[in-house]
Amino acid sequence: MHNYYKSIHVRDDFFVNPWKVMHLGDTLEFHNDENWPGKRTINLFKTADKDCIDFAKYFAKRIADEIFYGLSKFEIDIRFHKNDTYDVDEANYGWIHNDGVNFAGLVYLNQEPSNMDTGTSIFDKTTEGVFEQGDFASRKLLNLKQQVTEQYLIDLKNNHSNFTETIRTGNKFNRLIAYGADQWHRPNSYKVETAPRYSLLFFINKAEFEKVESKLSLTSDWSET
């Protein structure tokens, strides 16, 4: 179990110049995929663009130095993301899921007032239902072709009925949120004022930590079961 199991981190004003970061994203191509709603770039480390790779290295180092302290070895996937929006309002709320990596997170890049309804929520699972990433044909139609079918709305409602929201983080410009990716989570409403909902996503896997010795003793009755 890694050091940040079940953890959540929030850091405001993360980038010194978020407008420069946004401009970098706007120079890239975005595409849909059956595994996620909205459009993403490829992993910045997979581009042939020197600016993208330099930025990805800078971002990865800051995550290791400032967010997941002690992170020494890891793989990271970094992409810009723009959410699609749909005429059926119920479809503008994300699918509750967890990710098969160690950590995940994002930086919000919409220049507008903070909004509690368009950020990210963490959930507790309250049933035995199983929801894998590629389970539902209705999700693939939504993700690839932006088709909101009746079956998708049924599947989405069923998905949401298996969870209870425990934490809600507002969408605030230049705010970073990071969390242990085994936790159930979703993006909340995609309908932001300065559409599309724009973010920088990251996923960390194969994480290894340096052991940091503390000068304080942790021996305590409180550590006993």
Would you mind describing this structure in some detail?
The protein has 225 residues and is α+β, with helices and mostly antiparallel strands. It has one domain (8-208): q2cbj1_9rhob like domain (Jelly Rolls, Sandwich), CATH 2.60.120.620. It is 21% helix and 32% strand. It has 4 helices and 10 strands; from the N terminus they run βαββαβββααββββ. The strands form 2 sheets. It has a 7-stranded antiparallel sheet. The protein has a 3-stranded antiparallel sheet with strand order 7-6-9, with no helix packed on it. Strand 2 and strand 3 (36-40) form a beta hairpin. The radius of gyration is 18 Å and the shape is globular. The two termini are 18 Å apart. The model has no long low-confidence stretch (mean pLDDT 92).
Task: Give a brief outline of the structure.
The chain is of the alpha+beta class.
- Number-wise, the strands total 10
- Reading the helices and strands in chain order gives EHEEHEEEHHEEEE
Distance between the termini: 18 Å
Strand content: 25-35%
How many discrete domains? 1
Structural class: alpha+beta
How many helices? The count is: 4
The outline comes out as globular
Report the CATH superfamily.
q2cbj1_9rhob like domain
The CATH class label is Mainly Beta
- Ranges where pLDDT stays below 50 over 5 or more residues in a row are none
What is the CATH T-level topology?
Answer: Jelly Rolls
**Biggest sheet descriptor:** 7 strands, antiparallel
Query: What is the CATH architecture annotation?
Result: Sandwich
- Kindly provide the radius of gyration, computed on alpha-carbon positions and rounded to a whole number of angstroms: 18 Å
User: How confident overall, as mean pLDDT?
Assistant: 92
